[in-house]
Protein backbone atom coordinates (compact mmCIF):
# COMPACT_ATOMS: atom_id res chain seq x y z
CA UNK A 1 0.00 0.00 0.00
CA UNK A 2 2.31 2.79 -1.16
CA UNK A 3 1.60 6.41 -0.33
CA UNK A 4 1.09 8.14 -3.67
CA UNK A 5 2.09 11.73 -4.43
CA UNK A 6 -0.87 14.11 -4.27
CA UNK A 7 -1.25 16.24 -7.39
CA UNK A 8 -1.79 19.95 -6.90
CA UNK A 9 -4.12 22.60 -8.27
CA UNK A 10 -3.17 23.39 -11.86
CA UNK A 11 -2.61 19.75 -12.91
CA UNK A 12 -5.09 18.98 -15.73
CA UNK A 13 -6.20 15.71 -14.06
CA UNK A 14 -7.81 17.80 -11.28
CA UNK A 15 -9.69 20.09 -13.64
CA UNK A 16 -11.50 17.66 -15.93
CA UNK A 17 -14.14 14.97 -15.39
CA UNK A 18 -13.11 11.48 -14.24
CA UNK A 19 -14.26 8.30 -16.02
CA UNK A 20 -16.61 5.73 -14.48
CA UNK A 21 -15.02 2.44 -13.38
CA UNK A 22 -16.15 -0.36 -15.71
CA UNK A 23 -15.32 -3.28 -13.45
CA UNK A 24 -14.19 -3.54 -9.83
CA UNK A 25 -11.17 -5.80 -10.05
CA UNK A 26 -7.95 -6.19 -8.07
CA UNK A 27 -6.44 -3.09 -9.70
CA UNK A 28 -9.34 -1.00 -8.39
CA UNK A 29 -9.04 -2.57 -4.93
CA UNK A 30 -5.29 -1.78 -4.98
CA UNK A 31 -6.11 1.80 -6.01
CA UNK A 32 -8.54 2.09 -3.07
CA UNK A 33 -5.94 0.71 -0.65
CA UNK A 34 -3.35 3.22 -1.89
CA UNK A 35 -5.89 6.04 -1.60
CA UNK A 36 -6.75 5.13 2.00
CA UNK A 37 -3.05 4.92 2.89
CA UNK A 38 -2.32 8.25 1.17
CA UNK A 39 -5.30 9.94 2.89
CA UNK A 40 -4.14 8.77 6.33
CA UNK A 41 -0.52 9.77 5.67
CA UNK A 42 -1.45 13.29 4.51
CA UNK A 43 -3.43 13.36 6.88
CA UNK A 44 -6.85 14.12 5.44
CA UNK A 45 -10.50 13.13 5.82
CA UNK A 46 -11.14 12.46 2.14
CA UNK A 47 -9.43 11.79 -1.17
CA UNK A 48 -10.56 11.36 -4.76
CA UNK A 49 -8.63 9.28 -7.31
CA UNK A 50 -7.80 12.30 -9.57
CA UNK A 51 -5.85 13.70 -6.61
CA UNK A 52 -3.31 10.91 -7.07
CA UNK A 53 -3.38 11.38 -10.83
CA UNK A 54 -5.91 8.63 -11.64
CA UNK A 55 -8.89 9.96 -13.64
CA UNK A 56 -11.44 7.44 -12.30
CA UNK A 57 -14.63 7.92 -10.26
CA UNK A 58 -13.33 6.57 -6.96
CA UNK A 59 -13.36 8.26 -3.53
CA UNK A 60 -12.43 7.49 0.06
CA UNK A 61 -13.60 9.35 3.18
CA UNK A 62 -12.81 8.78 6.83
CA UNK A 63 -13.75 11.51 9.29
CA UNK A 64 -11.81 9.67 12.01
CA UNK A 65 -8.60 9.62 9.86
CA UNK A 66 -8.01 5.97 10.69
CA UNK A 67 -8.96 6.06 14.37
CA UNK A 68 -12.29 4.25 13.90
CA UNK A 69 -12.38 1.56 11.18
CA UNK A 70 -16.19 1.73 11.02
CA UNK A 71 -15.97 5.28 9.62
CA UNK A 72 -13.99 4.37 6.50
CA UNK A 73 -16.01 4.87 3.32
CA UNK A 74 -14.66 3.55 -0.01
CA UNK A 75 -16.89 4.19 -3.01
CA UNK A 76 -16.62 3.46 -6.70
CA UNK A 77 -18.82 5.42 -9.12
CA UNK A 78 -20.49 7.42 -6.34
CA UNK A 79 -23.44 9.62 -7.25
CA UNK A 80 -25.96 11.80 -5.46
CA UNK A 81 -29.43 10.33 -5.01
CA UNK A 82 -30.66 13.32 -3.00
CA UNK A 83 -29.29 16.72 -2.04
CA UNK A 84 -31.12 19.35 -0.03
CA UNK A 85 -30.58 22.50 1.99
CA UNK A 86 -27.41 24.54 2.32
CA UNK A 87 -24.49 24.86 4.70
CA UNK A 88 -21.20 26.77 4.59
CA UNK A 89 -18.14 25.95 6.64
CA UNK A 90 -14.42 26.44 6.13
CA UNK A 91 -12.86 23.80 3.84
CA UNK A 92 -9.43 22.95 2.63
CA UNK A 93 -8.08 20.46 0.12
CA UNK A 94 -4.90 18.38 0.01
CA UNK A 95 -4.49 19.48 -3.62
CA UNK A 96 -4.65 23.18 -2.67
CA UNK A 97 -2.33 23.21 0.35
CA UNK A 98 -2.19 26.39 2.38
CA UNK A 99 -5.51 27.76 1.14
CA UNK A 100 -9.02 27.59 2.55
CA UNK A 101 -12.47 28.83 1.69
CA UNK A 102 -16.12 28.61 2.58
CA UNK A 103 -18.07 27.11 -0.32
CA UNK A 104 -21.81 26.55 -0.15
CA UNK A 105 -22.64 22.85 0.20
CA UNK A 106 -25.81 20.78 0.58
CA UNK A 107 -26.96 20.38 4.18
CA UNK A 108 -28.08 16.79 3.64
CA UNK A 109 -27.07 14.31 0.97
CA UNK A 110 -27.83 10.74 0.03
CA UNK A 111 -25.05 9.11 -2.00
CA UNK A 112 -24.95 5.70 -3.61
CA UNK A 113 -22.03 3.82 -5.06
CA UNK A 114 -20.24 0.48 -5.05
CA UNK A 115 -17.99 -0.79 -2.27
CA UNK A 116 -14.68 -2.62 -2.95
CA UNK A 117 -16.61 -5.91 -3.34
CA UNK A 118 -18.95 -4.40 -5.92
CA UNK A 119 -21.95 -4.24 -3.58
CA UNK A 120 -24.17 -1.19 -3.71
CA UNK A 121 -23.88 1.06 -0.67
CA UNK A 122 -26.06 4.02 0.22
CA UNK A 123 -24.99 6.71 2.68
CA UNK A 124 -27.10 9.48 4.18
CA UNK A 125 -25.10 12.34 5.61
CA UNK A 126 -25.37 15.78 7.21
CA UNK A 127 -22.87 18.31 8.56
CA UNK A 128 -19.19 17.46 8.00
CA UNK A 129 -19.84 14.12 6.27
CA UNK A 130 -22.24 15.78 3.82
CA UNK A 131 -19.61 18.41 3.06
CA UNK A 132 -16.98 15.71 2.57
CA UNK A 133 -19.20 13.87 0.06
CA UNK A 134 -19.86 17.12 -1.84
CA UNK A 135 -16.14 17.98 -1.86
CA UNK A 136 -14.99 14.54 -3.06
CA UNK A 137 -17.74 14.11 -5.67
CA UNK A 138 -16.86 17.56 -7.01
CA UNK A 139 -13.30 16.29 -7.59
CA UNK A 140 -14.77 13.62 -9.90
CA UNK A 141 -16.32 16.39 -11.99
CA UNK A 142 -13.09 18.38 -12.14
CA UNK A 143 -14.10 20.92 -9.50
CA UNK A 144 -12.23 22.01 -6.38
CA UNK A 145 -13.63 24.06 -3.50
CA UNK A 146 -12.22 27.22 -5.11
CA UNK A 147 -14.70 26.78 -7.98
CA UNK A 148 -17.59 26.88 -5.44
CA UNK A 149 -16.69 30.18 -3.79
CA UNK A 150 -18.57 33.41 -4.42
CA UNK A 151 -17.41 35.00 -7.72
CA UNK A 152 -15.37 37.71 -6.00
CA UNK A 153 -13.50 35.32 -3.69
CA UNK A 154 -13.13 32.74 -6.44
CA UNK A 155 -11.50 35.18 -8.84
CA UNK A 156 -9.17 36.51 -6.16
CA UNK A 157 -8.07 33.04 -5.09
CA UNK A 158 -7.68 31.85 -8.69
CA UNK A 159 -5.35 34.77 -9.42
CA UNK A 160 -3.24 33.84 -6.39
CA UNK A 161 -3.27 30.16 -7.37
CA UNK A 162 -2.26 30.86 -10.97
CA UNK A 163 0.79 32.70 -9.63
CA UNK A 164 1.48 29.80 -7.29
CA UNK A 165 1.22 27.31 -10.17
CA UNK A 166 3.63 29.39 -12.27
CA UNK A 167 6.15 29.51 -9.44
CA UNK A 168 5.78 25.81 -8.67
CA UNK A 169 4.08 24.21 -5.66
CA UNK A 170 7.20 22.77 -4.12
CA UNK A 171 8.69 26.17 -3.24
NI1 LIG B 1 -10.03 18.07 -2.11
Set out the fold topology.
Layout: H1 26-41, E1 46-48, E2 58-61, E3 73-84, E4 87-88, E5 104-105, E6 108-114, E7 120-126, H2 127-140, H3 151-167
Antiparallel strand pairs: 1-2, 2-3, 3-6, 4-5, 6-7
Question: How many distinct helices?
Answer: 3
CATH H-level name... which superfamily? Answer: Peptide deformylase
Helix content: 25-40%
Mean pLDDT over the full residue set: 97
Q: Main sheet: which strands, in order across?
A: 1-2-3-6-7
Q: Write the element-wise H/E pattern from the N-terminal end onward.
A: HEEEEEEEHH
Structural class: alpha+beta
Describe the structure.
There is one protein chain. Helices cover 27% and strands 22% of the residues. By secondary structure, it is of the alpha+beta class. The protein has one domain: Peptide deformylase (Peptide Deformylase). The protein has a five-stranded antiparallel sheet with strand order 1-2-3-6-7, with helices on both faces. A two-stranded antiparallel ribbon has the order 4-5. The protein starts with 25 loop residues before the first helix and ends with a helix. The mean pLDDT is 97. Bound molecules: nickel (II) ion. The site of nickel (II) ion has 5 residues, from helix 2.
Concise summary:
By secondary structure, the protein is of the alpha+beta class.
Labels describing this entry:
171 residues; alpha+beta; Peptide Deformylase; 5-stranded antiparallel sheet; two-stranded antiparallel ribbon; 3 helices; 22% strand; globular; binds nickel (II) ion
Amino acid sequence: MPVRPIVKYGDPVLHGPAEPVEEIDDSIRALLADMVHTMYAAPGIGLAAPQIGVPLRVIVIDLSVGEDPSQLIQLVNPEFVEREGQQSEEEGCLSVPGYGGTPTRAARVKVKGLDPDGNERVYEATELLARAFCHELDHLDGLVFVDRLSPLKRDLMKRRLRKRVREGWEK
